[in-house]
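Schema walkthrough. Field components (list of strings):
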Amino acid sequence: MIAGLVLLVGGAAAGVFGSLLGLGGGVLIVPLLTLGFGLPLREAVAVSLVSVIVTSSASAGVYLEKHVANLRLGMVLELFSASGALVGGLIAFMLPANVLEGLFAALLVWVAISMVRRKEPAKDGAPVVAAVAVDVSADLTFTETLGGRGYRVHSLPFGMAGSVFAGLMSALLGIGAGIVKVPTMHLLMGVPLKIATATSNMMIGITAVSSAVIYLLRGQIDPFVAGPTAVGVFAGAMIGTRIAPRVDVRVLRWLFVVVLAYTAFQMGQKALGL
Amino acid sequence: MSPAQETAAHLESLAARLLTWGTRVAMALILVGVLGMIATGVDPITSSFPPFSLAAIPGQLASLQPVGFLWVGLIVLVGLPIGRVVVSGAGFLAAGDRRLALVSALVILVIAVSVIAALGLEG
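Field assembly_structure (string):
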């Protein structure tokens, strides 16, 4: 009973932090379940993937309604991220748990460094529209049809490779892997940050599903753990969205970096059997 | 806006509604399951869970077992991104965008391969 409430609250905290800091909840949920509750890493990853689907579906609905996510580009890239997740979902059952724990510790360090280096997004500038309603009868190359009003997409092969890698990471570590997808689209493919973030949010759902079905059918998803966690994440994400304008994210970010560093240390110790 | 573009814009709204309402339905079902867990004193960490079986779910629902609601909620949840891809693919086809319709079909194929691979590993 108490464990259920802790899962609800832990999921809610992951949802609040995730929505305030632009992260999926996976980087928090997996350590909570493994280090906090002693669950095996694979089970924690499976539960985390469910939470990733919750976050993605809830936010993608809003982004698509507002025409911020680029559906065309997302569809193309998610073919590759889903393929990566399929491979990752199968590899996850072959790798020893301590290798996955070591990978997760490295991921936490990477996320912490990314958060330290992150710049505040500009609030001014012309509105950018994803413009998915492209006239396909026009004389455009395939890559050109993936762009939007005010921006062109380029370097599609980099996007494909980055998506495969993101899918692998998602399936192995139970994360949305927006930390791979957003920089790939924004820095390598020329997609505006806001659209890259929204498109990544949409993509992580189907990416997570590709490996979640493997975990589900192999009996690795515990509904008694996944249920309270998913409800908590959903509630937390809604709270986070509402309080975001009133929260000083800079302070929160530094607090989060400290938590990530400590968790990475704990996870690293577990991987090394110390 | 051309008819093809109008179809594509309509398609986005349709996919958005599917995700928004589908998430609400899934979360409501899971919440019923969680409340059932609390009511019946199920400890999520120490309680063993029945293995996932589609055939067992109607019986679990009929006997109002929390796990039945949790499984249905999770299935709806997993089905949402797949539904979004199917809706998008149909919309792209209707808009005459065969390349994107093919991409949508390939995404569904990847999911199907995941299911087959998981079942193969189980067997």
